[in-house]
Specification:
Chain lengths: ~425, ~270
């Protein structure tokens, strides 16, 4: 779909005309990220992160395919094959560090992208499907990143795999057999490593497919914007090309500088030293931590230290950890406020700030050792997390008095909109 | 209806967490965790700087050669270096002939596919450092990644090598059960304070071919620098590649910003 004033693709060169009649691929691109896609003119820099996330996916697929050319998915040689890549393959060190830090960059970008959605109500009608597909992408990313971390077959790879697949054993009745089926054994071993490699290669392309659906669903209503007011007239929008291509272009530059600074000057900063020790099933690391991007959810998992009635603490932790992400699927129906942007929601705005701080606390606790006071702090923080989405949000959205919205995007930008005079007073 | 359901689910999770918090707080108050000797006496690595530190750091080849000498004459008796090949030593400034001579000093097992026998040949430049047969107590780790595999990296190695001392009387007073067992040695920089490796370096453990005085401190620093190199021989190349790339990106970003300003010049937003 596009707005009636959107430019229409008109091929001029005979070849492009010929092509357009047979496979209108250039037309598709033109309407998706070219002059044919009209975008609100008032997007702020938080709207650059969707494009950056797409870039991260491309970086990961390209560097990942090169890594796969040198990797051997066998417990006997997996660790050595990575070291060989880094030491002896031309530019192998660059591919390895670009891929490992690319995962971190991807999660930084995606967390900002998600929290942009929380603040500006991007999940609300008519963009629920965009949001739901986004949560699916996030879940796929987590699975992919987890399995990728297992592949070097270092100490954290092995013990991380053991802990995470161990979560399935918490499921009543079918848990143990399910875990053994997933691993292809009683503990992570060659069978598990092989299937993780296979899936780690497959899932990014599944993600790519869902990303295409995500963008398709976005293009039906068009992009949201910081005011949350829908597009009303031609003066509200600018064509994606050249306006947002230019804006995304220089944002890519800033992103690339930060990313390259990590890759070239602190490539191991975000990794754990234990993963440079080959996996040893006979020696448990002093404390097992996942990669930083899982810390908030890892803190929620570990927050349950006591059984709740007949539910074992471990099962409760697993339920809560998965529930913490699954609750995002229900967000469009939990938040009933018709106002999208938190800029016009005086009460919700502050709860959003608390949620951000809460996530940082959970993040810190998830990376810390499972000791007091970190466990108690993470229990309080997890409590707020669930209260925020399941209790506070439904109540606040029902009772909050929103601030007056601007008539249109144009009015919010220019201070006045000539169309507003013609509109019936509301 | 949806709202009531969500609040009920929310109450289930929040009340569960409040309960588990209360149980945890009660336990923490009534049975506080006993301090352990490891917690009280373990020390973070000492501050020590290496030529390769920081984004502008470069390996000091002279130091790496000294460090290799320490590895070859002391460490290699127990510790292998299996990810490093003799040919890599050219990066330390040795020439072809020197590398061949060094390789020949090591015995490398070679599997003969025709007879099925394992022969022990003198090493060649293309060989990797051979495995080390060790029969004593403990399990000496391979050192090729040690500077990446420990918090603190090279500083950890240096601290461990220079950190051997008698067990403090204070420790024995508070934790009488934590006396260093026979056959182990006290070192506060080691995770559980006692390790099987006796202090490997002393003053003049090696005689440096470049004439540098071989104090314990000097040897420890040199071998740590060598192990930093061994864990990432491509580090110099990585940093040298990084600067031009950052420079180009900065230039491209400025151009990108200017074209952005230019394109949006007449569009208020």
């Amino acid at each position: 779909m596009s707005f009636p004033w959107a430019k229409v693709y008109t091929p001029e060169h005979p070849f492009m005309k010929w092509m357009d009649e047979r496979l209108p691929l250039p037309r598709l691109v033109y309407n998706a990220v070219g002059g044919g896609y009209e975008v609100p003119r008032n997007l702020n820099y938080f709207w650059n992160f969707g494009f950056l996330a797409g870039l991260c996916l491309v970086i990961q697929i390209v560097t990942g395919i090169v890594m796969a050319m040198h990797y051997a998915a066998n417990t006997g040689v997996a660790f050595d094959s990575i070291e060989m890549t880094v030491r002896d393959v031309n530019w192998g060190w660059l591919m390895r560090y670009a891929h490992a830090n690319g995962a971190s960059a991807f999660f930084v970008v995606i967390y900002i992208h998600i929290f942009r959605g929380f603040f500006y109500g991007s999940y609300k009608a008519p963009r629920e499907m965009v949001w739901l597909l986004g949560v699916v992408i996030f879940l796929l990313m987590m699975a992919t990143a987890f399995m990728g971390y297992v592949l070097p077959w270092g100490q954290m790879s092995f013990w991380g795999a053991k802990v995470i697949t161990g979560l399935f054993s918490a499921i009543p009745l079918v848990g143990e057999p399910l875990q053994q089926w997933l691993l292809g054994g009683f503990a992570p071993d060659n069978a598990a490593l092989n299937r993780f490699f296979s899936l780690h290669y497959l899932l990014p392309f599944v993600i790519l497919g869902v990303v295409i659906l995500h963008i398709w669903a976005l293009h039906i209503p068009g992009s949201s914007n910081p005011t949350g007011v829908e597009v009303k007239s031609e003066s509200d929008t600018v064509p994606f090309y050249p306006y947002y291509v230019a804006k995304d272009g220089w944002a890519i530059g800033v992103f690339a500088i930060l990313y390259c600074a990590m890759v070239f000057f602190a490539p191991n900063y975000l990794g754990h030293p234990d993963n440079y020790i080959p996996a040893n099933p006979m020696s448990t690391p002093a404390h097992i931590v996942p990669e930083w991007y899982f810390w908030p959810f890892y803190a929620i998992l570990r927050a349950f230290t006591a059984n709740i009635f007949f539910i074992p603490a471990k099962l409760m932790g697993v339920l809560a950890m998965f529930g913490a992400i699954l609750v995002w699927f229900f967000l469009p129906w939990l938040d009933r406020s018709p106002i999208r942007s938190a800029s016009y929601r005086p009460v919700y705005k502050w709860f959003f700030v608390v949620l951000c701080l809460d996530m940082l606390v959970l993040f810190y606790c998830g990376g810390a050792e499972a000791k007091e006071p970190y466990v108690m702090i993470s229990q309080i923080a997890a409590l707020y997390y669930f209260a925020h989405f399941l209790i506070i949000l439904p109540i606040v959205s029902a009772i909050e008095k929103p601030k007056p919205l601007p008539f249109s995007i144009t009015e919010s930008v220019l201070g006045k909109d000539e169309d507003a005079v013609l509109a019936p007073s509301a | 209806m949806a709202r009531i359901l969500s609040i009920l689910v929310g109450l289930f999770f929040t009340l569960s967490l409040a309960y588990t918090f209360a149980v945890g707080a009660y336990t923490a108050a009534t049975e506080p965790e006993a301090p352990t000797a490891e917690h009280e006496f373990h020390l973070a690595p000492k501050h020590v700087s290496f030529a390769s530190d920081g984004p502008f750091g470069k390996f000091d080849r002279q130091q790496l050669q000294r460090g290799f000498q320490v590895y070859q004459q002391v460490c290699s008796a127990c510790h292998s270096l299996r990810h490093v090949a003799f040919r890599d030593l050219e990066q330390l400034g040795y020439n072809d002939a020197e590398v061949k001579a060094i390789a020949a000093q090591f015995t490398v097992p070679k599997y003969d596919t025709a007879t099925g026998e394992v022969a022990s040949n003198p090493g060649m430049a293309t060989d990797y450092f051979p495995p080390v047969a060790y029969g004593g107590q403990g399990s000496p780790p391979d050192l090729s990644l040690i500077a990446k595999a420990r918090h603190g990296g090279g500083a950890y190695v240096y601290s461990l090598l220079t950190g051997y001392q008698d067990q403090p009387a204070e420790l024995l007073k508070h934790f009488p059960d934590s006396k260093t067992p026979d056959g182990l040695y006290y070192n506060p920089y080691f995770a559980n304070l006692n390790l099987a490796m006796p202090a490997p370096l002393v003053d003049d453990a090696v005689t440096y071919s470049d004439g540098t005085r071989a104090t314990l401190d000097q040897e420890a620093k040199d071998v740590s620098a060598f192990l930093i190199w061994a864990s990432e021989p491509t580090m110099d190349k990585r940093k040298q590649t990084g600067w031009p790339i950052l420079g180009f990106l900065l230039f491209a970003t400025i151009l990108g910003y200017m074209s952005y300003r230019n394109i949006w010049a007449n569009k208020k937003h």
